Amino acid sequence: MFHSPSTVLPTLQVKGLGVNYLTRSRGFWARPRPISALDNISFDVRPGETLGLVGESGSGKTTAGRAILRRIEAASGQIIFKGTDITNLRGEKLRRLRSGMQLVLQDPYASLNPRMRILDAVAEPLIVHGLVKSPEAARDQVVELLDLVGLPADAATRFPHAFSGGQRQRIGIARALALKPDLVVADEPVSALDVSVRAQVVNLMQRLQEQLKLSYVFIAHDLSIVRHISHRVAILYAGRMVEIADRDSIYDRPRHPYTEALLSAVPVANPALQRKRERIACQGEVPDIANPRPGCRFASRCPLVTELCRGESPPLIEVASGHSVACWHRS
Amino acid sequence: MTREILLEVDHLKVDFASRAGLVQAISDVSLTVHKGETLGLVGESGSGKSVSAQAVAGLISSPGTITGGDIRWRGQSLLGRKGERYARSVRGKNIAMIFQDPMTSLNPLMTIGNQLGEGMRYHLGYSHAQARKRAEELLGAVGLSAPARRLDQYPHELSGGMRQRVMIAMAISCEPELLIADEPTTALDVTIQAQILELLASLQQQLGLAIILITHDLGVVAGLCARVAVMYAGRIVETGDVDTIFETPGHPYTQGLLRSTPSLEGTDETLLSIEGMPPSLINPPPGCAFLPRCPIGTDHCRKAPPMQDWNGSVVRCWKAGTNAWLPGVMLEPAAGL
Amino acid sequence: MSAIVSSKPRNPTRLAVLRGLLGELWHDKAGFVGFVVILLIVAMALLAPWIAPHDPAAQNVIARLRPPAWLPNGDWNHIFGTDHLGRDVLSRVIWGARSTLLIGASVVLFSGTIGVIVGLCAGYAGGRVDSVLMRIVDIQVSFPGILMILLIVSVLGPSTLTMIIVLSITNWMIYARQVRSIVMSVRQVPYVEAAEVMGCPPRRIIFRHILPNLITPLLTVGILEFTNIVLAEAAVSFLGLGVQPPATSWGLDVASGRDYIFMAWWLITFPGLGIVLTVLSINLFANWVRVTTDPQEREKRFAYSKTARRMMRAASEKAVTQ
């Protein structure tokens, strides 16, 4: 469906993924009601490719990342990892699958156990999957991993509190890479970091991708950093995918009004340009997905909205090679 | 164009006592804010930008103290025994502040209308009905839909962006001359951030408000500010006109910061990364604080550099204006360098 | 490469950490006093056979109801006086500490273990297991404790062991609730999620990642519960359902002394003082432990300490002279 047909087997295929949450029941006798947090999401990630998954709060981007990793149950659709359908794996099989796909988290301060040395933390995946017996036995491998992410060997014996946010994020990446995964889901890995350190981590992730042929699903809340790391970009809004395309197509020829709004909302560090830039009006707030209205979810904020949009939700249609949009007026 | 000077911060120094030792949160900060002007205060976490704002707003409390320098409002000091009474009359009325997280700054048990009205009843002596009417006007002015209905809502019924609008309404309710905004949009989504920044810009034009905008995002500064001060490790390292500094940054740190900020234009694949991290503020070594990370630092930099004029801005660097990151860096040089 | 890392001491030895902690304890005077008193009481209990001047059960009909030594008619042979059977009150207080501390410590240990297991299961498994376990806790909490004690004692017969069993069964719920709520919040912490995604089996997640978070809150609850147990033991022994003569405990002594309260106040005063001192000093020490194990509270305590004030004054003075 996307891009030119290729003979390479995608690392990850997501087909029509949907996730529901249950509401807390309001009354004592009321039944919990399912809320659709993610609705009919499809994309592929090929080896060595990065898919940027962009959306604001409530868009379902984090839910999508967790569903891929099988942390959250999918209500519908399929998740295919290296050709195997993993949507319904359970127990030991699921646990073994874990070594192939790893997670890098947003908060570098909370993602490492403060009571474990770096050696123990990075060696843990190796121990859990039975590759080594003890952290000491994994020392050489851990030192190699630390070197890979640009940390000195003596970091191994220290505790997390001795490290800064950027360094901790490197440790988190080293831990994720210990099992030589094919896919890394990075959930806003640089959002909590300072600007100058952000670049360090993004450059590191790019270098590692080239070295190890990793596939990334890179989750972000705006479009600025995604440009530097992604090959393809998918835009989510209120649980639905509104646009997916190659990076350059998204940035040069955005089709969906929401993508345009997102792009124009990113402040650019160039005063003359920033003053001149025209912001695409996008008034109002993100809709409440607990009480969805029929039609396009962006309708309440869209400058192009018509009756059609309010009545029926637009399908995702391929408008150019590898570029799909869900909008009645732009496809 | 010379305008009336509202606020002067003069070689301010703030220390915090901690178990690990004395933290020199701010070691030298000087700022001037003119009437109706927007000043951007940029820095990374721990650079002292928020502490500077707290000092101006009188929010430094134990274990922190102001150990040097002066803060003046319209030429009169806000510090010391004499300044204290004057400061009380200025703060809250002439100087207002908004914070990053609007939820924690709002009382969850009070309606929006009552919270908004409280300040006006206290500072301006409004009656309950007057305050309510004015609150409704203010909510309309900050762009909230159905302001009359919002008055009786509680903070948890509003979204993050709406809460920040309420905070802004509260801040401008006593018609301050200076608004200190400490990372006002960091917790918000980008499209909401754009709305709030637009609101701040329009309020400034309508009310002739001066704004100190504290942020780590250079893009936010570029859009809203006329002047900018860049902080690093408790000191201002560069200050000047926004266009000049973004066009020709003089300090290696400013240069690095600008080039490690991702842009939507351009085709560069790799971002510049400033290796290393900011120094500890406990017993910092003498000399330039950026030296350990600076590509053009020399032994001479172990002597603390003074603030000196360079190309229209003021820079704290012995080699101001040298293009620090050019050799071996995979980036197109910024325009004008 | 990093100034922050290198400015910190590399790996402080255990001894240095201990010395630092003792220094901090010394600065919190109330906590320090509490700690010293606890040590003294424990030492007294352990060394009872050597330091008690008399056999606590030895009766002496001639020397009945002797007042403490400093009062008229007193006798330096019985410093705290004697009871209605002529037994030495000081020796009874010293020996009484033994059973009181023994019961307190073992009850905290047993009820803590039950509570932690129940809380871990409820918090980690969630769902139906959680609902069922927590309803059991609710039922147990709402069941009158004294009724339960009467029931069990009447079946097993009063003894020190019965006492430990009874108090363990009626006091584990607080641990279960506390542990459950901590487990539920810790499960949301990113490093636990990272461990789960990594493929850690539940056993490892519970023991490596969740359990260490429980140690300090449990320590605090345990210490505070200890004081409750001491009081409960006193109450039950007072009713005659606890420790049985000739063995002794502070509660039992208070109970048997109550008939003589107007003619021989020392019979209930000294064992009563023992209870008060133990409970008070444990509370003072527990407060110190609570603050010290919470980094935020610890920094706050430092901010109000003399050292911090001295530090700030020095900084201001330096600024003036410059």
From TrEMBL, chain A:
Keywords: ATP-binding, Nucleotide-binding, Transport. One of its GO terms (cellular component) is plasma membrane. SUPFAM superfamilies: P-loop containing nucleoside triphosphate hydrolases (SSF52540). GO terms for molecular function: ATP binding; ATP hydrolysis activity. It comes from the Bacteria. Residues 23-263 form the ABC transporter domain. Its main location: membrane. It is found in: Cell inner membrane. PROSITE patterns: ABC_TRANSPORTER_1 (PS00211), ABC_TRANSPORTER_2 (PS50893). It is a peripheral membrane protein. GO terms for biological process: peptide transport; transmembrane transport. Belongs to the ABC transporter superfamily. NCBIfam families: oligo_HPY. PANTHER family: D,D-DIPEPTIDE TRANSPORT ATP-BINDING PROTEIN DDPF-RELATED, TRANSPORT ATP-BINDING PROTEIN. This is ABC transporter ATP-binding protein. It comes from Pelagibacterium lacus. The lineage of its organism: Bacteria, Pseudomonadati, Pseudomonadota, Alphaproteobacteria, Hyphomicrobiales.
From TrEMBL, chain B:
GO terms for molecular function: ATP binding; ATP hydrolysis activity. It comes from the Bacteria. It is a peripheral membrane protein. CDD domains: ABC_NikE_OppD_transporters. PROSITE patterns: ABC_TRANSPORTER_1 (PS00211), ABC_TRANSPORTER_2 (PS50893). One of its GO terms (cellular component) is plasma membrane. Pfam families: ABC_tran, oligo_HPY. Keywords: ATP-binding, Cell membrane, Membrane, Nucleotide-binding, Transport. SUPFAM superfamilies: P-loop containing nucleoside triphosphate hydrolases. Residues 7-258 form the ABC transporter domain. One of its GO terms (biological process) is transmembrane transport. It is found in: Cell inner membrane. Belongs to the ABC transporter superfamily. This is ABC transporter ATP-binding protein.
UniProtKB/TrEMBL annotation, chain C:
It comes from the Bacteria. GO terms for cellular component: plasma membrane. It holds the Pfam family OppC_N. Keywords: Cell membrane, Membrane, Peptide transport, Protein transport, Transmembrane, Transmembrane helix, Transport. The chain crosses the membrane at residues 30-52, 101-125, 145-174, 214-243, 263-286. It is a multi-pass membrane protein. InterPro entries: BP-dependent_transpt_permease, MetI-like, MetI-like_sf, OppC_N. It is found in: Cell membrane. One of its GO terms (biological process) is transmembrane transport. Residues 97-286 form the ABC transmembrane type-1 domain. The keyword Membrane applies. Belongs to the binding-protein-dependent transport system permease family. This is ABC transporter permease.
